[in-house]
Design a protein that fits this description.
Length: 245
């Protein structure tokens, strides 16, 4: 990492599932994610990539070894402390957007901020509109979420993930449910967030073409890191929201 601030670090990370028979899914993972990095995690089905993501993002707290956030071990935090960290410092974007269809776009984006209660309702709505504008969706704010296309709904999910100004956005196959054009659009949004706003992003993907355009690609096989590669500067231009409306 050089002088780059290490935000998340795992040491000897293991994970075992018990479903009648013990299955060791992660077999001692050592890695570090720096602030502002856009990291992709790849691997075949069953390699442990989603399990690794869920542990790093506090969604799974039963594991061996250590996970540290800014030097603080997660395993020493209780459930309330983990929930507070998750609400304050983490944004999630999943393969399915999980929007509430009968609520407006604006209401969906505001919900995590209402739960955190860091700002007034008026300030939350203002910030939500700013996020939607950043993603080219300000004019859709009053529509019901069900009225949007799949690509638009996933962009709303990104705005929702950004509303609390998280330190890290975790994406679990965030482009996996989209056609190729919308998948590329969503990916370029992530890349622009990392480059322009220094947003830390950790993304699981099956798409090697997208993974190669992140800052760094970590490849898992059978619960082990078999490659950790810094990628070359992509030749394609960054995402420009106004040009894609």
């Amino acid at each position: 990492m050089g002088r780059q601030q290490i935000l998340i670090e795992t040491e000897g990370l293991t994970k075992t599932f018990n479903s009648g028979q013990e299955l060791l899914v992660l077999k001692g993972i050592d890695l570090a994610v720096g602030a502002g990095e856009f990291v992709s995690i790849m691997g075949s089905s069953g390699s442990g990539k989603s399990t690794l993501l869920y542990i790093m993002s506090t969604l799974d707290s039963k594991y061996g070894g250590s996970v540290r956030w800014a030097g603080k071990p997660l395993e020493k935090m209780n459930s309330n402390e983990l929930a507070a960290l998750r609400n304050r410092d983490i944004g999630f974007v999943f393969q399915f957007h999980y929007l509430l269809p009968e609520f407006t776009v604006l209401e969906n984006v505001c919900m995590p901020a209402y739960r955190l209660r860091r700002f007034s309702e008026g300030e939350i709505r203002k910030r939500a509109l700013q996020k939607l504008d950043l993603l080219g969706l300000a004019d859709q704010a009053s529509k019901k979420a069900r009225q949007l296309s799949g690509g638009q709904q996933q962009r709303v999910a990104i705005a929702r993930a950004l509303i609390n100004e998280p330190k890290v956005i975790f994406g679990d196959e965030p482009t996996g449910n989209l056609d190729s054009a919308n998948a590329l659009l969503v990916f370029e949004i992530f890349r622009e967030l990392a480059r322009k706003f220094h947003q830390t992003i950790v993304m699981v993907t099956h798409d090697p073409a997208l993974a190669l355009r992140t800052d760094r690609t970590i490849t898992l096989k059978d619960g082990l890191v078999i490659a950790d590669i810094c990628n070359k500067e992509p030749l394609t231009p960054p995402y420009q929201p106004a040009a894609l409306l």
